[in-house]
Amino acid sequence: MKSHRTLLLVGLLAMGLGSAGYTHASTGQRAAAAPTAPAAYTVMAGFGDQGGDANYFAPQAIEIYPGDTITWKVGGALEPHTVTFGPKALLVKLANGLINPIMQKAGPPIIAFNSQAAYPSRGSTYDGTGFANSGILLGKGKSWSLTFTKPGTYHYFCLIHYDPTAGAPSMVGTVIVNPRPAAGHVYNVNAGSMYDSAVNGSDTFTPAQLTIHAGDMVVWRGILHTITFGPAAE
Fold first, then answer.
1. Contacts of 204 (CB under 8 A, 6+ apart)
2. Contact of 5 with 116, CB cutoff 8 Å
């Protein structure tokens, strides 16, 4: 069983948190206009190599549909990050109590990370209630995925990049889960009939012309006919 605190050396903290970052508001991303199946999206969590870093989520805001999955991927080797959803009061408490030095009789102090913040939460889905956390993602390419199951607007931030002086996170993001559009309408077309042959002397499609919308379905019903599309005859 994992202890309440995870003990790590000061050197690891210095390596992960030593460089100064800056925030940046990136453009949002919209989901497909006419979704037909769950989709997967990627959000970058920070960037930085070779002595510089940029601490922001890109895109900062993303629009998806229920059933879609987002994978957050660390874009740099210098900074650790978390992706954390939940009640604001809980997130602020975790951010303020993320690390605590434990003094030793000899040698440097040991840093204790709150395990609730340091480790990923259970489960891989989120409906807007409760707590969902990636844990500390340290290392370029490290990732964490979450599938959203209910429409809503969900805000999250990195527990590590929280400014206690300002009382606000400096690395924030938003997931907007829009209701998935209803399935397209289904239309029926008769492909000829005995009545057409007897009365009109030829078979016809009924209706002969049909206006539909993207995502709609047309079902042709008939016997001994084909439905063939191609360039208009000259």
1. 192, 196
2. no
